[in-house]
TrEMBL record:
InterPro entries: Flavin_Rdtase-like_dom, NADH-dep_flavin_reductase, Split_barrel_FMN-bd. It comes from the Bacteria. Keywords: Oxidoreductase. Transmembrane segments: none annotated. Residues 17-160 form the Flavin reductase like domain. Pfam families: Flavin_Reduct. The keyword rRNA processing does not apply. It comes from Albidovulum sediminicola. This is Flavin reductase family protein.
Length: 308
């Protein structure tokens, strides 16, 4: 029997890693000559509250690797939804990435960027070699969080859940559903008519974003508001439905149960439009090619990523 490990396709692995929705950060430091340096990263993770630790990973091939490895401090700037241009700047080989960015030195000493969702100024706790990357573990010396919603990243594209939600219509005729996905399954609940349904709520005066967060919280499942998957009108009932896909943890729900994301798994969904939507999702999940549906409960159009 062969003991060789199977070959891993780097591009396929990168795409698989991209299925995990993350925030977008710019990691910064000062070099030995006092010049600010930085790079875009979505590998930010909180590590510990006591002591306060976090980590990011940096490619060993990065031109600023040596400067970060020698630095005594670094900062993690969590970009806001309005800062996609900053993310792009710090991800490309730009001569002076800080030229068009307002920044200041944080209390610990690393560059802190203005307008971010949050920042953490850290002393270097430890450097850990990890394959073709180096893990930077920092001890938080100072931080600040703002009300600006954070910029997201999913399957190679930026996502702005708060901005998108704010542009959608709200009111008594808008209903939202959450597709809580975990390990190839999704959560269905009793629809009160002997069948099943996605967790669904009516949007009131509190607005869509608050209603979405409350709907997720009521399930008892840990998940973040995700991207829009379908927007359709039920003309006969004068209602508009908006469905959000949300990556979820496999917690035990307060009600309902996880079922396979397959035509058979969603067969008990009584609402025809919702059932067809979930059958489409099951097919797209197999192919890894997702789209957003716009139309009515009977007919519409699926817009694929990058399509205009």
């Amino acid at each position: 029997m062969s003991t060789e490990e199977p070959a891993v396709n780097p591009r396929a692995l990168r795409d698989a890693f991209g299925c995990f929705m993350t925030g977008v950060t710019v990691v910064t430091t000062m070099d030995a000559e006092g010049k600010p340096l930085g790079f875009t990263a979505n590998s930010f993770t909180s590590v510990s509250l006591d002591p306060p630790l976090l980590l990011v990973s940096m490619a060993n091939s990065s031109k600023s690797h040596a400067a970060f490895a020698a630095a005594s401090s670094f900062a993690v700037n969590i970009l806001s939804e309005e800062q996609k241009d900053i993310s792009t700047t710090f991800a490309r080989p730009v001569e002076d990435r800080f030229a068009s960015v307002y920044w200041r030195r944080g209390p610990v000493g690393a560059p802190v960027i203005a307008g971010v969702s949050a920042w953490f100024d850290c002393t270097v706790e430890k450097l850990v070699p990890a394959g073709d990357h180096t893990i930077l573990i920092g001890r938080v010396g100072a931080f600040e969080a703002t009300q600006a919603p954070g910029l997201g990243y999913y399957r190679g594209a930026y996502v702005t859940p708060a901005k998108t939600a704010a542009q959608l219509p709200t009111g008594p005729d808008v209903q939202i559903s959450v597709i809580l996905e975990a390990d190839g399954q999704l959560l269905l609940v009793d629809d009160g008519h002997g069948g099943a349904s996605l967790p669904t709520a009516r949007v009131g005066r509190e607005g869509l974003q608050t209603a979405l967060e409350k709907l997720i919280a009521d399930t008892g499942i840990t998940a973040e508001p995700g991207s829009i998957y379908a927007v359709y009108e039920d003309v006969s009932n004068a209602k508009q439905h908006i469905a959000f896909r949300c990556a979820a943890s496999r917690d035990k729900p307060r009600k309902g149960a996880f079922v396979d994301l397959s035509p058979d798994g969603v067969a008990d969904v009584t609402d025809p439009a919702m059932r067809v939507m979930l059958e489409r999702l099951a097919g797209e999940a197999r192919l890894g090619n997702y789209g957003i549906y716009f139309g009515t409960h009977e007919r519409g159009r699926v817009t694929r990523a990058g399509e205009r």
